[in-house]
Every structure is written in structure tokens, then in C-alpha cells.
Write a structure and sequence with these properties.
CATH class of the largest domain: Alpha Beta
Bound molecules: phosphoenolpyruvate, magnesium ion
Keywords: Coiled coil, Cytoplasm, Kinase, Magnesium, Metal-binding, Phosphotransferase system, Sugar transport, Transferase, Transport
CATH superfamily of the largest domain: Phosphoenolpyruvate-binding domains
CATH architecture of the largest domain: Alpha-Beta Barrel
Distance between the termini: 43 Å
GO molecular function, one term: kinase activity
Largest sheet: 8 strands, mixed
Subcellular location: Cytoplasm
Number of strands: 16
Helix content: 40-55%
Number of domains: 3
Strand content: 5-15%
Structural class: alpha/beta
InterPro entries: PEP-util_enz_mobile_dom, PEP-utilizing_PTS_enzyme, PEP_util_C, PEP_util_CS, Phosphohistidine_dom_sf, PTS_EI, PTS_EI-like, PTS_EIN
EC number: 2.7.3.9
Length: about 575
């Protein structure tokens, strides 16, 4: 039956495909009995999943380094013991063989049985071992499900899931998945950013998706408007085809702005830089006439793999980016791992209580000398091939910038001694995304060459609203008087000190907000290349002086509605 679900558009594009539903691992598994002919297959699937879990833990164990290696290692050993527990394994086999339960459900029953034993224990420590059991069962579940997603023939599928990790996206696309719908998630998450880079339509926050969509349903996904039509009718299919034609028309219209200047109606030139995560983005940025790269997110080079990339690999990667922009400046951001960008290499700490407030960005780099120096050396070597700027993520204060400067100085001296070509001048910039750094931006102006405001995180930290938590709804929004005032403050400090200020968070790529950013005095926007022409069009339609004349009114807005009224009136 036809059904319309709505969520948030997180990556544009329209797709028609077949639903492949991936239930979350923690979800209650429904009772499922199997026929005698499926028993052996089900057992084999279960044991493959257990073996994969064992391998995964072993690999994790080998990679542990640093201060917490011992403690974390002990947990993993305990988990490995649970995996080999004859009671657990025999119980599972019996449930499948004699009980004719699906592997999923057998896992659930066995877990509940052991949970009841743990619950009876008086000892709080032993009771807490239940968490370990759940962890192990969860991993086995994950492997059972991963295989379901990996099944051959996913080309043309639309993945429906509770959430999707950045590290999964490229693989899913390579398998032929044409769109993704998630029940949770936010358009500002890193998965959403990466999906946009991959041109993979994504709707997030479609809360009912897992209940209402069945495996095999036909779906139309509109990643721009956040709409999902389940089992579309003839009218929907016609509309879908019309929408595809409309998108192509709109694109042709925007294409006319290629090569045109980004100049306001009153003649002010605005710098449009591109955000990039991949070589495709770089090619796109170049083709669309970006003035340079304002943000190259290096962590994506680290995310899709189990081993850290070495200096040579990073150097070749960064050099390709620099060469790809043929002489236009390339801003390479040092590693911003941690929080929702957890890697598989074991570098970012797992299991922090508050990962967004934890060891991420420059904090992680400064606590891993070898990893940071390798990255800096690779970036500095790439600077021999074209203009490079270095951008530091998650800066809280000047000490961090000074420490990075010193590391760069040392790495440069060593590279020169080794005979490498390194640029004389490499501008060093700070991401302004920690509120305290924004408020105290005056304390950074003499140690940085430029600022880049990361509104995605700045909004999250300023409003105490997780950028990935769909339940917070509109609470996470740049349209808050506090956010606008802080942006104005940083832009002012930059103007007064001759430190260029760009905004590289997602607001810069939203054409609706261009007048607002122009009114606040912004002259540099860094955005995903796909959005460049739209934002150029919005800027070309704006009169900067007229907008700036109304900035006081904007700053007096007391709430989101007031800001929206201001925007509606421009
Ligand atoms: C930001 O926080 O606005 C930003 C650009 O960085 P990221 O989205 O990679 O955290
Ligand atoms: Mg950020």
C-alpha cells in the first residue's frame, strides 16, 4: 500500500529502487522459526558471524596502543572468552537445530537466558558483566546483518536502516546502493556530508522507516526534500520522472553561471572556496571555478581502512589534491578524528563518555606525535607543488596553535635537510568551532593567518545540542540569535586584525542563508562544490550594502522566528 514518510533531506538527488531493510542490532528480534531445510544454512551463517567477530576482536587487540591499551585489551580478552564459551555456543546450536529458531532469534533467546542468570547474582561486578555479554552478542548480530547487506544483487537497492556510519557509505555505493533512508541521524552529521560528496541521495530522521518499510518494497527517495514514497503509485512514478527532468533543467540553468564572477549586485567580489573530501570533489571544485579549497577534510583518508596511511601514501594523496587545483590555494585540515568520526584503526579512543567533548581534532593529533608528524611532513612535502594552507580543527586556545607551529617548523627544517621542496610560506589557520575560541578570537589573531568558522560544531557546542541527534529537532540550528552574534563577533575581530575569515560549515552552502552571512560581513564562503553555483546565484542576486544596512535589525532578533522574518524580508 502506498505510504508517504518524511524525514530530512540530507543529500540531494532522487532515486527509485528496492528497499533493503537493515534492522538495528539492538532492536528486539521477532520470533522466527525455520524449516528443516534451513537449519544447516542458519548454523553456518551463525558460525561465520562468530568467526568474523573473533577475527575482529583479535585485530582490535593487536592494534591497541597507548595509555589505555592494557585496560581495553583486558575487556577484549574477556569478550573473546565469552565467544568461546561452550555453554553459549552449545545453547545456540541447540536452539537452531532442535528449536528451529532463526540464528537471530536464537541469539536473542540465549542472551535472555544468560541475562536471567546474571540478574540473580548479588555481586554488582558480576552483574555488570552482562554488558560484556550484550556487547559480544551485539557484535555477532552486526556480522549477521552485515552479511545480509552484503548479499549479492544490491545494485538498485535503497538501504533502510536506523543509522549509517561514514565508514560504510563508499562501500554501500560501490555495491550499487542508490539511496539511503535512516530513521535517526541529522543532515549535519559526517555521514550526511560524505553522502553529499558521493552524490548518494540520503534522507535522515525518517522516524517510522523501520516499522513501515518492508524488505523488497519499491521506494522513491527524494534526498532534497526528505521524502520517501513507499510502494509508489502511477502518479508518484510520473512525478518522479518529472522531478528528474526538472533537476536536469535546473542544473542546466545553474551551469550558465560556471566561470561567472561571484559578485554582489553592488559590485563586491566574494570568495567562494570549496569543501572537499575526495578527488572527485576536487575535480568538481576546479571545474566550477572555486577560488581554491577552503577545507580539505583529511580524516576521510583514514576512515575507510584498518591501517593508518603512511607518509608516502598521504603525500601522494595531498599532492594530487594540490595538483588538481592547479595553482589555486588548497587548505588542508589536519586530522579531525574522534567523536562521530571514529576510525577503524584504533587511533581515536573508543568508548569515551563524551566523545564530542573528548580527544578529537587537534587534541588527538597533539597526543600522537608520530601520527601528527607524519601528516605534517606529507602536507609540507605537497606544498612544494602548489599553494597549501594548513587548517587546525577543534582549536580551544593559542597554546595549541603555538604547539602546531612549532611542530611545523621542526618538520620543515628536517624535510629541507632531507632535500625535499617545501614552500617558504604556509599559512596556518584555526577552525573556530569551540565557543571559547570564538569568544576569545582576539587571543588568536597574532598566531594565525586565517580563521575558518566551523558552524557545524560551533552550533553544536554553543547550543549544547548534538549535531547528530535527531530528537533535538530544531534546537540544533544556526538560526539562533546567539549563533549570529558570535559569528558577527568573529568576523569583526578578523576585520579589525586583518585576519581573513571564512565560514566552512554547512550554512555556507545553503543558498537561503547567503544574505544573512553577507549582512554579517562575511566575504569568504567554503562549501561543497555541488552547491557552489546555487550560492553564487544567491550572492549575485544580493545587494551587500543594503543587507549590511539591516544587520542591526538582524542582530536584534530575539528568536528563530525573528531571524526567519528578517530573511523573508530581504
Ligand atoms: C564544522 O564543524 O563546521 C566543520 C566544517 O567541520 P566538520 O563538519 O568536519 O566537523
Ligand atoms: Mg567541525
Amino acid at each position: 500500500m502506498r505510504l508517504l514518510l518524511s524525514g530530512h533531506g540530507a543529500s540531494r538527488g532522487n532515486a527509485l529502487g528496492r528497499a533493503r531493510v537493515r534492522q538495528p542490532h539492538a532492536l528486539e528480534v521477532v520470533e522466527q522459526r525455520i524449516g528443516a531445510n534451513r537449519v544447516e544454512g542458519e548454523l553456518a551463517q551463525l558460525h561465520t558471524a562468530i568467526a568474523a567477530t573473533r577475527d575482529e576482536m583479535q585485530a582490535l587487540r593487536q592494534k591497541l596502543r597507548g595509555a589505555l591499551a592494557k585496560e581495553v585489551g583486558e575487556f577484549l580478552d574477556l569478550h573473546a572468552l565469552l565467544l568461546d564459551d561452550p555453554e553459549l555456543l552449545r545453547g545456540l546450536d541447540d536452539l537452531i537445530r532442535a528449536g528451529r529458531y532463526s540464528a537471530d532469534y536464537a541469539l536473542r533467546l540465549q542472551r535472555d537466558k544468560l541475562a536471567a542468570v546474571f540478574a540473580e547474582m548479588d555481586d554488582a561486578y558480576l552483574k555488570s558483566r552482562m554488558d560484556d555479554l550484550d556487547h559480544v552478542i551485539g557484535r555477532i548480530h552486526a556480522h549477521l546483518h552485515a552479511r545480509a547487506v552484503d548479499l549479492a544483487g544490491v545494485a538498485g537497492d535503497i538501504l533502510v536502516s536506523d543509522n549509517v556510519a561514514p565508514s560504510e557509505l563508499a562501500q554501500l555505493q560501490a555495491q550499487g546502493v542508490v539511496a539511503i533512508v535512516t530513521a535517526a541521524g541529522s543532515p549535519l552529521s559526517h555521514s550526511a556530508i560524505l553522502a553529499r560528496s558521493l552524490h548518494l541521495p540520503l534522507v535522515v530522521g525518517a522516524a517510522k522507516a523501520l516499522q513501515k518499510i518492508n524488505d523488497g518494497d519499491a521506494l522513491i527517495v527524494d534526498g532534497g526534500n526528505g521524502r520517501v514514497v513507499v510502494e509508489p503509485g502511477a502518479d508518484d512514478l510520473r512525478e518522479h520522472r518529472e522531478r528528474l527532468r526538472e533537476l536536469a533543467r535546473e542544473q542546466r540553468e545553474l551551469d550558465r553561471l560556471r566561470g561567472k564572477p561571484t559578485r554582489t549586485r553592488d559590485g563586491v567580489d566574494i570568495v567562494l572556496l570549496a569543501n572537499a573530501e575526495s578527488r572527485d570533489d576536487v575535480a568538481n571544485a576546479h571545474a566550477l571555478g572555486a577560488a581554491g579549497l577552503g577545507l580539505y577534510r583529511t580524516e576521510f583518508l583514514f576512515l575507510q581502512r584498518n591501517e593508518l596511511p603512511d607518509e608516502e601514501e598521504q603525500f601522494h594523496h595531498y599532492r594530487d589534491i594540490v595538483l588538481g587545483m592547479s595553482g589555486r590555494p588548497v587548505t588542508i585540515r589536519t586530522l579531525d578524528l574522534g567523536a562521530d568520526k571514529a576510525d577503524r584503526t584504533g587511533l581515536a579512543l573508543q568508548g569515551e563518555d563524551n566523545p564530542a567533548l573528548g580527544v578529537r581534532g587537534v587534541r588527538l593529533s597533539l597526543s600522537h606525535d608520530g601520527v601528527f608528524d607524519t601528516q605534517l611532513r606529507a602536507i609540507l612535502r605537497a606544498s612544494g607543488y602548489g599553494p597549501v594552507r594548513i587548517l587546525v580543527p577543534m582549536v580551544s586556545g593559542r597554546e595549541e596553535i603555538l604547539a602546531v607551529r612549532q611542530r611545523i617548523r621542526r618538520a620543515r627544517a628536517r624535510l629541507r635537510k632531507e632535500g625535499h621542496a617545501v614552500a617558504e610560506e604556509i599559512a596556518l589557520g584555526a577552525m573556530i568551532e569551540v565557543p571559547a575560541a570564538a569568544i576569545a578570537a582576539h587571543g588568536l589573531v597574532d598566531v594565525v593567518d586565517f580563521f575558518s568558522i566551523g558552524t557545524n560544531d560551533l552550533v553544536q557546542y554553543l547550543l549544547a545540542a548534538d549535531r547528530n541527534n535527531e530528537a533535538l529537532g530544531e534546537l540544533y540550528s544556526p538560526l539562533h540569535p546567539g549563533v549570529l552574534r558570535l559569528l558577527r563577533h568573529v568576523i569583526r575581530i578578523g576585520e579589525e586584525s586583518n585576519v581573513p575569515v571564512a565560514v566552512c560549515g554547512e550554512v555556507a552552502g545553503d543558498a537561503r542563508f547567503a544574505p544573512l552571512l553577507l549582512a554579517l560581513g562575511l566575504t569568504e564562503f567554503s562549501l561543497h562544490p555541488d552547491l557552489l553555483l546555487e550560492v553564487r546565484r544567491a550572492i549575485r542576486n544580493s545587494d551587500r550594502a543594503a543587507l549590511q544596512a539591516r544587520v542591526d535589525k538582524l542582530l536584534q532578533a530575539r528568536d528563530r522566528a525573528g531571524i526567519e522574518r528578517w530573511l523573508a524580508a530581504v
